[in-house]
């Protein structure tokens, strides 16, 4: 959902030459983070209104990514980049609470 430049900037690698494996890992956590945010709020996310309009099968509750959802994706990317395992023997890290604060206004709650 984010550009590779945005992802590299988030993890402070914008000036680095990356291996194919590292580049693939960043692409993977970018996609996974975007999917996690989309699943968490129960909405399909689109990069732009043009992308949303072009998708004839877009659900009614779809939305264009905004600054809050983008920041949540960035926070997850940073978390997954630093914490490549579920836990470590040194510390247990929980995904930052700020993500929930950013996403709560966009979350669909079934009634």
Automatic annotation (TrEMBL):
Coiled coil: none annotated. InterPro entries: Phage_gp6-like_head-tail (IPR021146), Phage_HK97_gp6-like (IPR006450). It comes from the Bacteria. It holds the Pfam family Phage_connect_1. NCBIfam families: put_DNA_pack. This is Head-tail connector protein.
């Amino acid at each position: 959902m984010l550009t590779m430049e945005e992802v590299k900037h988030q993890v402070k690698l914008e000036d680095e030459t990356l291996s194919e494996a590292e580049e693939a890992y960043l692409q993977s956590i970018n996609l996974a983070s975007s999917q996690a945010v989309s699943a968490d709020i129960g909405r399909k996310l689109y990069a732009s209104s043009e992308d949303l309009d072009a998708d004839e099968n877009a659900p009614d509750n779809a939305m264009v990514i905004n600054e809050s959802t983008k920041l949540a994706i960035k926070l997850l990317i940073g978390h997954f980049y630093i914490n490549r395992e579920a836990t470590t023997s040194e510390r247990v890290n929980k995904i930052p609470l700020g993500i929930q604060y950013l996403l709560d206004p966009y979350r669909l709650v079934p009634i």
